[in-house]
Structure formats: structure tokens, C-alpha cells
């Protein structure tokens, strides 16, 4: 399979890097327009914004990100929150700094571990192990060689968010596409194959609420400003 063939395969449902390749960076950051960061009204439930971090070089070129990969390009502040939970990754913390003066790092929000493929481009992995990459593109939830599978990500985010009382929930969570899918899987109950078909673009958001159970309020919003 050629690199161009890989790009074609990535558009199939279940291909993780559908979030990354040919992604056009937002022209400007957007403001939240759906009441986030406000106290919940009586009976409305506690709202939580799941925000994907900003775009990175590996998202643009196609690859498995390194943990120290920064946000690409300059950014400016947008909507502010009092309570933000963030992945330990540099790109997530760079993004969270635009939302909150003191975001709280949560280990459970770290990106899925790509094992031996961490920091490598898709083209590089394809040249070295084309069959393994093809298998991963078809079933990314099974994970990469010596990496983490989707079930393990679900287990750790469920242990974190499931253990929080309403008053302890963050107003916003800044993390990675696969982690956002995992949160949707454990809160809303979306099965693994359908949740893999959700495209989580840089700086896109999902809004959840919790009141006698979790509900999906909005998906696919962007930030402008």
C-alpha cells in the first residue's frame, strides 16, 4: 500500500487519523455560545465541555503524536472557565492555558499510549510495518504494538469521572480525540465501533450534562473569538 493508499483508507469509518490528515486550522478561535462555565440552573444538571486540544504538526502531516508536541502556531485567549481539567500532554496544557488561569492536570486524561509508534509518522510506520498499520486503521480500538487499547482508556476515564460528585465536576476538560471518545463511551454508553466514527477535530467541543445520569447536549461546536 502506498502512502496515498493509506490516506484513502483513513477515510473509512474507524480510522483514528481521520481527525488529523487534511485538517484545516480554524481561521479564528471562537467563543462559546451555549452557556458554558455558568452555574447550572435547578434541574438542568451540571454541564461539562469536552474540548479537543489545538492543532499540532502530527495532526497536519499524519502521525502518532509525541507527548511533548506543542500547539502549532500562535493562539489567543477565548472563553474563560474557573475549573478546567487537562491532560498532562504539552499540547493540551497549552490549550487549557487559554481557558483557565490554573487548570488541573489529570493523569487519566492523557492520550492513548501508541507504544512503539509514538512520535512516528504514518509514512514511517507504513514503510516499516504496512500490514500492522493497515490493521490499526481498520480497528484502531485494539491499539498499536506495545500500546494501549481503547478499553484501557475507557477504564481510566471512567474511574476518574465516575468518581466525581456533581460539585467536583470540571466546567471544561481539555484532552485528546481518543480520550473524548472514551468519555462519550463511558458516560453516554456509545459502543466502540460507532464512537470511533465520531470525528473530533482540533478545538472542537462536545457538551455533556449530568442530572440523574449523563446526557449529550451538543456535539461539534467550535470556539470563536
Commentary on this structure:
InterPro entries: His_Pase_superF_clade-1, His_PPase_superfam. With 225 residues, the protein is α/β, with parallel strands linked by helices. It contains eight helices and six strands. A six-stranded mixed sheet has the order 3-2-4-1-5-6. It is globular, with a radius of gyration of 17 Å.
Which structural category fits the helices and strands? alpha/beta
Written as H for each helix and E for each strand, in order along the chain, the element string is: HEHEHEHHHEHHEE
Number of strands: 6
Mean pLDDT: 81
CATH homology-level superfamily: Phosphoglycerate mutase-like
Shape: globular
CATH class: Alpha Beta
Summed up, the helix count is: 8
Which radius of gyration do the C-alpha atoms yield?
Answer: 17 Å
Sheet with the most strands: spatial strand order: 3-2-4-1-5-6
Could you say what the CATH topology is called? Rossmann fold
Helix fraction by DSSP (H/I, runs of at least 4)? 25-40%
Uncertain runs with pLDDT below 50, 5 residues or more? Answer: 1-43
Q: State which percent range the strand residues make up.
A: 5-15%
What count of domains describes the coordinates? 1
Distance between the terminal alpha carbons, to the nearest Å?
Answer: 42 Å
Please describe the biggest sheet, giving its number of strands, its sense, and whether it closes into a barrel: 6 strands, mixed
CATH architecture: 3-Layer(aba) Sandwich
Pfam families: His_Phos_1
Protein name: Histidine phosphatase family protein
InterPro entries: His_Pase_superF_clade-1, His_PPase_superfam
Amino acid at each position: 500500500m502506498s502512502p496515498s493508499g493509506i490516506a484513502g483508507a483513513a477515510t473509512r469509518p474507524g480510522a483514528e487519523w481521520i481527525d488529523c490528515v487534511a485538517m484545516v486550522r480554524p481561521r479564528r478561535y471562537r467563543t462559546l455560545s451555549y452557556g458554558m462555565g455558568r452555574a447550572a440552573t435547578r434541574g438542568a444538571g451540571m454541564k461539562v465541555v469536552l474540548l479537543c486540544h489545538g492543532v499540532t504538526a502530527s495532526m497536519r502531516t499524519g502521525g502518532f503524536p509525541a507527548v511533548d508536541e506543542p500547539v502549532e502556531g500562535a493562539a489567543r485567549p477565548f472563553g474563560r472557565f474557573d475549573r478546567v481539567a487537562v491532560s498532562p500532554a504539552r499540547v493540551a496544557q497549552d490549550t487549557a492555558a487559554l481557558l483557565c488561569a490554573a487548570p488541573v492536570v489529570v493523569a487519566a486524561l492523557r492520550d492513548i499510549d501508541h507504544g512503539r509508534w509514538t512520535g512516528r509518522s504514518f509514512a514511517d510506520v507504513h514503510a516499516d510495518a504496512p500490514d500492522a498499520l493497515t490493521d490499526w486503521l481498520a480497528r484502531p480500538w485494539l491499539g498499536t504494538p506495545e500500546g494501549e487499547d481503547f478499553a484501557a482508556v475507557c477504564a481510566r476515564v471512567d474511574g476518574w469521572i465516575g468518581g466525581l460528585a456533581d460539585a467536583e465536576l470540571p466546567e471544561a476538560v481539555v484532552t485528546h480525540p481518543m480520550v473524548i471518545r472514551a468519555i462519550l463511551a463511558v458516560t453516554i454508553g456509545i459502543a466502540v465501533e460507532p464512537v470511533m466514527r465520531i470525528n473530533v477535530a482540533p478545538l472542537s467541543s462536545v457538551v455533556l450534562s449530568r442530572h440523574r445520569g449523563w446526557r449529550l447536549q451538543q456535539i461539534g461546536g467550535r470556539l470563536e473569538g
